[in-house]
Amino acid sequence: MGFLYSLDRVRRGAIPTLSAFAVLRDAITAELRAASPAIVAGSVYGSSVRGDVSVRSDMDLFLVYETAERNRVSQMLRRLDDQARAAHISLHASIHSVDAAAQTDRYGPSFLQTWERMRTAGLLVGEPERYYRALFPYDVRSEMSHKIQRYLGKVRRQHRQFANARRSSGWLGRQLEQWYAQSVRPAHVYVNVARWLLLWRDGTLRDDGKYAVVRRVLASNEFAAIHETLEIVRDLDSGYNRFLQQVRRGSISGKAYNRRVRVLLDILMPANVFLLTEAHRLTAGNPCSLVVAA
Fold first, then answer.
1. Does 11 fall in a domain?
2. Can you give the pTM of this predicted structure?
3. In which domain, by residue range, is 282 found?
């Protein structure tokens, strides 16, 4: 669940170790605390905190800073980015000034649950609820419906770009490196769909881990329309983990690796569009989305 790596990145060994995530997480948390009061709220979150991190994960970070402290915060972010690059970790940061935080809808009410987990873990700096005002006008159900609709458009664009890229020679390595730089993870979309559908239905998640949310969706008849595709993508993703280990050991050729990744993407990209399309139909209240084709 996460990045698909280019063969060049695999051969260079530019893939993080599991222990590197904990080191970077603690370094970021220390930087955020040291930067107060310039940093008024912030935390790492995601798999590095939940405990289901893998060598294909990125590191999620959000922070809110005093608008007048932009230069100081920029210097801190460069240091953190240098640390992440040295550890081969993609740092996916969402950064807002106090003024910008009040205008963005990046974080909705579901993040109150995330931030409470971070607070319990001793990782949260400040009170982000004070700054992200988009938290308040919406409920989790409408937030998830909007997020699915917006993400569907994004994934459709990625699919079109992927189809165009395939027409050029040497496209695979370039595409994978571009996705890595942008923290785009096509093999993670199915996890997001599962998580968002459960939040849409239940309003809360006691366990938002990758494996837990996929299992729960597969166990729910309400989401039967996506079960088959979800299982296919899950198994492809799991298979890539094993294949990545083999190529890192040198037990398979680079040519075989690239061939496997091309096949995976040919299935994965349209599958992502399908999963989000069905999720959108369901969350928009269309009962037809719950009918499994014969």
1. no
2. 0.90
3. 139-290
